[in-house]
Specification:
By secondary structure, this protein is mostly beta strands. It has one helix and twelve strands. The strands form five sheets. The chain has a three-stranded antiparallel β-sheet, with no helix packed on it. The protein has a three-stranded antiparallel β-sheet with strand order 10-11-12, with no helix packed on it. A two-stranded antiparallel ribbon has the order 1-2. The longest helix is centred in the last third of the chain and has 30 residues, at 171-200. It is extended and about 115 Å long. The protein starts with 14 loop residues before the first strand and ends in a 10-residue tail after the last helix.
Length: 210
């Protein structure tokens, strides 16, 4: 809950009562000049943890650009901006138009700034305001819009909502296959039961006296 956030000064060795399930945070070490460094290396076979990236050779210097990120390259006369992103397409192709974000809400785990849930209120042309949350996607004109994530500033305040869009043109084939499996199972059990009843029925006998 953002209302329960406490601010102050701590030093190594201090403990902080979080107020959530008895969790206590202890400061072991403070590194004032720590920074995150990301390194890349070629990989012949991708793994589930692999992130796509490209290597750029510019003016004799090599640079790595990860997927959905940006690289600025400088010369004495100009600045070049290179982006490596997923393919983009306009929603006009499906006759939807431009979505407009009206509101965004994020729920936090008690006593922390960690996001527990988030949802977007978007204005969809032809539909009006629609809520897209983590568990409630929006299906419209053959597309499914999911609440994927959000972008926040250094203080944790949301500043952008990230939606993912999925198109599954072969969905009807899967539904048809599932229906055929159900009908086949019913057909199998029906005839199996009918055959079992027929086998258990008493057979008529004829006696011939001579």
């Amino acid at each position: 809950d953002p209302k329960n956030v406490r601010k102050g000064t701590v030093k190594p060795g201090d403990t902080i009562e979080t107020g959530w399930m008895g969790l206590v945070l202890r400061i072991l070490k403070y590194i004032p000049y720590a920074k995150e460094e990301i390194t890349f290396k070629p990989n012949k076979r991708p793994t589930p943890m692999t992130t796509s990236a490209i290597e750029v050779d510019f003016n004799g210097a090599k640079h790595w650009v990860s997927l959905n990120s940006m690289l600025k390259l400088f010369t004495n006369d100009a600045v070049y901006i290179l982006t490596y992103m997923n393919r983009r397409t306009s929603l006009d192709k499906w006759g939807i138009g431009e979505l407009k974000l009206l509101d965004f809400k994020v729920g936090r785990y008690q006593g922390t700034l960690r996001a527990a849930s988030y949802e977007s209120l978007v204005d969809v042309p032809g539909l009006g305001p629609q809520t897209i949350s983590m568990n409630e996607p929006l299906k419209h004109k053959g597309l499914t819009f999911y609440q994927a994530s959000f972008d926040a500033d250094d203080s944790g305040k949301p500043r952008a909502s990230v939606l993912s869009v999925n198109q599954d043109p072969g969905r009807w084939v899967k539904y048809l296959g599932s229906l055929l499996i159900v009908l086949g199972s019913i057909h199998l059990f029906y005839f199996k039961r009918k055959t079992a009843k027929k086998a258990a029925a008493p057979k008529a006998t004829t006696e011939v006296n001579s």
